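Deliverable D2.4 — example input (structure tokens):
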């Protein structure tokens, strides 16, 4: 889907990729700042006191990303550091709505069920949960770790909304 969107709107494709590899919400990804990306520790820091990251409920949180995505995040960080506000995306105010429109259109074009932009978080969550299980975590531990990545404070929310029963 991202490859389908990229030729017509590369900023949306980049945003969706960011959501896909970090589990960020569409607004959180749109308002990410280059200074929030720590490449050495492979994490993002959503903890601005003024909530410039637009986290849900204004709650700060660290977001860990897999080392395999470091090059992508490094590219984002270095290409966008020129923005005077420090944000990755210059058009961050209109970007979430544009992303939603692009995803709906791509799903229609590709004849696939649309989960909207939250589908990228869902895919991330399922993969993060599986990584945690494969690393030896129990079901509850894996759910809690994934919940924290997503910015939820209860594992049950993650189970109900993001992790398929199978």
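Example output (designed residues):
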């Amino acid at each position: 889907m991202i490859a389908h969107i990229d030729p017509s709107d590369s900023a949306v494709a980049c945003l969706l990729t960011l959501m896909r590899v970090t589990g960020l919400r569409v607004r959180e990804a749109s308002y990410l700042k280059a200074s929030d990306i720590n490449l050495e520790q492979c994490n993002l820091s959503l903890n601005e006191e003024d909530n410039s990251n637009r986290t849900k409920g204004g709650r700060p949180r660290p977001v860990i990303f897999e080392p395999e995505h470091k090059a992508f995040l490094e590219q984002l960080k270095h290409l966008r550091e020129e923005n005077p506000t420090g944000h990755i995306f210059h058009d961050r105010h209109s970007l979430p709505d544009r992303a939603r429109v692009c995803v709906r259109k791509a799903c229609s074009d590709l004849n696939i069920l649309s989960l909207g932009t939250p589908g990228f978080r869902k895919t991330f969550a399922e993969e993060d949960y599986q990584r945690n299980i494969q690393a030896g975590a129990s079901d509850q531990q894996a759910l809690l770790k994934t919940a924290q990545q997503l910015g939820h404070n209860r594992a049950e929310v993650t189970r109900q909304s993001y992790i398929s029963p199978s």
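The chain has a mean pLDDT of 86.
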